[in-house]
Amino acid sequence: MTRLVIEFDWVRDPKGYHLDQKGRVVRNGKGNTPKDQEPCRPLSSTDTLFRVFAHMATTPEGVLEFVQRYGPLTYGGWDATKGEQVALVIHHARGMSQILESRAGGWKRRLPPDDRETGPPSSVDAWVVWDRTAKEFKWKIRPKTLLDALWLQLGQWLTLGIQIRACQRCGEWFEAGRGTGRRADAKFCSEEHKISFHSHKRSKGK
Fold first, then answer.
1. Mean of the per-residue pLDDT values of the chain
2. pTM of the full predicted structure?
């Protein structure tokens, strides 16, 4: 299966964000025009940002940290008078984490029913464009929000059949199996974490 190229331009508040008493992540800036926010491309650094989201955004503080780094998840987070609903974001992050946990266990822990949606539908704009270099047509996909982009990323990786596991040292998700540089049964995201885990285990046994 060919991997879709996901293009996504977004904005974030250069003045940062904070948690308010109503359970929202709110912009520090007050203006609501494009010039009040700075452009960013949250997917440019990795095509598996959903793993960071699923690991980080499971607490109010984690949601705030994620938004500080990558921008708000929905259009509500753009609006200085509304803000990002933390409970909703955590719900999505935990949903992704449960899917990844089930996938890492070969669906033995929680096998989804046939044709059952595992997450919300992603809203995207899609075009068929001509790639002059490859001399072929391809899909051009642009999600509407960062949350849509994350679910689209997750869906693509699940359908490509890549192994995803949780590191036993840090808990973060990593890829394993063919083409990833790690064995399919790998338990750690890096050699450093493997050494650290076993060193800590030995020290506790003394």
1. 84
2. 0.74
